[in-house]
Amino acid sequence: MLQVIKKKATNEEIEKMAADYDGYIKIVVDVEREILTGGGEKHVDGEQLLLTDGSKQQDLWGGGIDLETKEIDYNSVINLRPNQDNPSRDILDAQTRKKFSEVVKRLLL
After folding, report:
1. Any residues with CB less than 8 A from the CB of 49 and at least 6 apart, and which?
2. CB-CB contact of 28 with 60 (8 Å)
3. Nearby residues of 16 by Cβ (< 8 Å), 6 or more positions away
4. 35-84 per-position pLDDT tens digit
5. CA triplet 20, 25, 26: central angle to 5 degrees?
6. What is the pLDDT of residue 69?
7. CA atoms of 85 and 108, how far apart (whole Å)
């Protein structure tokens, strides 16, 4: 179930987000506003939800987290941005990856 997370997620919220992929959560982070969406089947759904909440496209990055291993990944189709020097599904910029990871850890772990 797709959720917008603006403060530390509760166990109930995490369970709902993890239900779509059995312990894995698809995540879209607004690296400027330091909020995220978690859950759902596609990153684009979280991206659209944050855009309607006031986020800017260039600040949104996708990835996920495996709740069992706590491993964060930085892979999503929404990350393909040749105009922002990111011609990959992975977040290539080290600073953006760091910010993404910091927001995920603060809000979900």
Report:
1. 2, 4, 28, 37
2. yes
3. 1, 3, 39
4. 999 999 999 999 999 999 999 999 999 999 999 999 999 999 999 998 88
5. 95
6. 97
7. 28
CA-wise closest residue to 69 among 39, 8, 14, 24: 24
Give residue limits of the domains in the chain: 3-108
Whole-number pLDDT of residue 10 = 97
Integer-rounded Cα Rg, in Å, for the chain is 12
Mean predicted confidence (pLDDT) in 12-30: 96
Q: How many CA atoms lie within 13 A of 53 on its CB side?
A: 20
Tokens standing for 58? 């260039």
Q: What percent of the chain has pLDDT over 90?
A: 97
Of residues 82, 54, 87, 89, the one with CA closest to residue 37: 54
Q: How far is CA 5 from CA 12, 22, 53, in A?
A: 12, 19, 12
Distance, CA of 66 to CA of 72 (rounded, Å): 7
